[in-house]
Write a structure and sequence with these properties.
Layout: H1 2-20, H2 26-34, H3 40-65, H4 70-77, H5 83-113
Length: 114
């Protein structure tokens, strides 16, 4: 239950932080969520999944809400065949940043306890 609550906390904090500031504040959401966990691998997994899920939803909603051809142009610029791969690759970046933020939080708590 604690892991699920951490997952929801990271998604909620990540959503509000990325609305209020730059995209890389999602690492802060992962860091704060990682403070509640004890294992760095579990922390990375929860952080990665939360960041991935959040970015898939946000990028997909933005892509579908706009009537622009910008997503298709960006996909072509990066050599991707369609916008779905653009959404997935963006979500991988968000997941990695959030996961590493969570690992940092876990390791900070471990270091302070020693």
């Amino acid at each position: 239950m604690k892991k699920f609550l951490t997952f929801v906390l990271i998604i909620t904090l990540g959503y509000f932080l990325t609305i209020l500031g730059p995209w890389y504040l999602i690492a802060l959401a992962g860091f704060l969520g990682g403070l509640a966990l004890k294992n760095q691998w579990i922390g990375f997994l929860i952080g990665f999944l939360a960041g991935f899920f959040l970015w898939v939803v946000q990028v997909w909603l933005m892509t579908n809400a706009s009537n622009s051809d910008l997503p298709e142009r960006l996909a072509q610029l990066f050599g991707l065949p369609n916008t779905s791969l653009l959404v997935i690759s963006s979500a991988l970046v968000g997941g990695l940043v959030t996961g590493f933020g969570a690992v940092t939080g876990v390791n900070l708590i471990k270091t302070l306890k020693k």
